[in-house]
Write a structure and sequence with these properties.
The protein is an alpha/beta fold and 417 residues long. The chain has two domains: 196 residues, 3-Deoxy-D-manno-octulosonic-acid transferase, N-terminal domain (Rossmann fold); 185 residues, Rossmann fold. The protein has a seven-stranded parallel beta sheet, sandwiched between helices. Strands 10-11-9-8-12-13-14 form a seven-stranded parallel beta sheet. Strand 2, helix 4 and strand 3 form a beta-alpha-beta unit. Helix 3 packs across helix 18, helix 5 crosses helix 6 and helix 6 packs parallel to helix 8. The longest helix is centred in the N-terminal third of the chain and has 23 residues. The radius of gyration is 22 Å and the shape is globular. The protein starts with a helix and ends with a helix. The relative contact order is 0.10.
Length: 417
């Protein structure tokens, strides 16, 4: 089956580069570093290499506490951080600068991954969340490079998809040296698909501290908002902004300010057009000025400020969950001490979302109409907002510690290599 998989990759390879060209029309970064996608990793130098793969922005931010721990405890090693998307790579550069070597992960063709491993020479590999690349894992096994899957998650929906390719999935998952799962449910689904017994280490995202300048940026935002009641729609996905704009426009809350921060920066202008098409007055973070009277929507068109947006909000909806996108990470919102609203579609963070609801840090809504009702109720009930904020802080505090458990798993391969 892996031979058929490889044949499919060969057939799709020209289209992969056409895809990069298409994406580059909106994000020119997609035209850069094509050689790395064919295995041309940069020379990491003479020190032993720890290779980590974080596909995009969310995984890169989740990897931060682990990378900082590795840098602090193994300064004699080089950390090679690979990504799939330009936004992931930019996030890695923002967070770690010259402390790590960065590259794109190669396409999963045998010669590409062999070239990558020959150039990078990793002592071990650490893959964040759920990236299962059959040829890459087989090549690592042949070269004696142990690969760990950490912060692993596997939703029921994803499990059904992987199960369609049962033999290939089982053979690939069996090649991981060890797995650190986010939850017992994730561990069970991975093992059912053929993975080795997984350690339940928790979610690394609970260990991610806010950026050092979060308080300063949050104060800037609050100063710009003035005395308005701020409802933040964070990490929104396609289709959600229109729902929110139409529903909240009907609310009779004169001091309400809707702050929208799209999940993907390439959608900033698209969302601005949606707002303006409805005749709503718009302010933008990039303008760096106070919100004028009569402005009803503030567009968060900036990168790296999500923690500040949460800290400056009165109530936050975590995007990707009103429509079937699977939901975005709500841990950062809870840790900021802001009342959280989520929709029905949270399979990407199923356990974290349910735990937040159960402890009172979050409220789940079934549709945009119910979301508007919850916003109205929270607007009128400061005591409920304070109780949810306190529950969120406690929830985030109680679930920390995944970094140390993952470090203990990796220690034998790093120190005994």
């Amino acid at each position: 089956m892996r031979a058929l998989y490889t044949l499919a990759w060969w057939a799709l390879l020209p289209f992969a580069f056409l895809y990069l060209l298409g994406r580059s029309r909106r994000q020119p970064e997609y035209r850069r570093h094509w050689g790395e996608r064919l295995g041309g990793a940069p020379d990491p130098g003479d020190r032993p290499v720890i290779w980590l793969h974080a596909v995009s922005v969310g995984e890169t931010r989740a990897a931060a506490p682990l990378i900082q721990a590795l840098l602090a405890r193994h300064p004699d090693h080089t950390l090679l951080l690979t990504h799939t998307t330009p936004t992931g790579r930019a996030t890695g550069a923002e967070l770690f600068g010259g402390q790590v070597v960065q590259a794109y992960l190669p396409y999963d063709l045998p010669w590409c991954v062999a070239r990558f491993l020959a150039r990078a020479r990793p002592r071990l590999g650490v893959i964040l969340e759920t990236e299962v690349w059959p040829n890459l894992l087989a090549a690592c096994e042949r070269r004696g490079v142990p690969v760990y899957l950490v912060n692993a998650r596997m939703s029921e929906k994803s499990a059904r998809g992987y199960a369609r390719f049962g033999p290939l999935t089982r053979a690939s998952l069996a090649r991981f040296q060890a797995i650190a799962a986010q939850s017992a449910a994730d561990a069970e689904r991975l093992q059912r698909l053929g993975a080795p017994a997984a350690v339940v280490a928790g979610n690394l995202k609970f260990d991610v501290p806010p950026p050092a300048d979060t308080a300063k940026r949050a104060a800037e935002l609050r100063a710009a908002y003035g005395t308005r009641f701020v409802f933040l729609a964070a990490s929104t996905r396609e289709g959600e902004e229109a729902l929110l704009l139409d529903a909240l426009a009907a609310l009779d809350l004169p001091d309400l300010l809707l702050v929208i921060v799209p999940r993907h920066p390439q959608r900033f202008e698209e969302v601005a057009r949606l707002i303006e098409a409805r005749g709503l007055r718009l302010a933008r973070r990039s303008e760096r000025r106070a919100v004028a009277p009569g402005v009803s929507v503030f567009l968060g068109d900036s990168m790296g400020e999500m923690a500040a947006y949460y800290a400056a909000a009165d109530v936050a909806y975590v995007g990707g969950s009103l429509l079937p996108h699977g939901g975005q990470n709500l841990i950062e919102a809870a840790a900021a001490g802001v009342p959280v609203l989520i929709g029905p579609h949270t399979w990407n963070f199923a356990e974290a979302a349910q735990q937040a609801v159960d402890c009172g840090a979050a409220l789940r809504v079934q549709d945009v109409g119910q979301l508007v009702e919850r916003v109205t109720a929270l607007y009128a009930d400061s005591a409920l907002r304070q109780a949810m904020a306190a529950a969120g802080l406690a929830y985030a505090r109680e679930h920390r510690g995944a970094t140390e458990r993952v470090m203990a798993m990796l220690a034998p391969a790093i120190e005994g290599g």
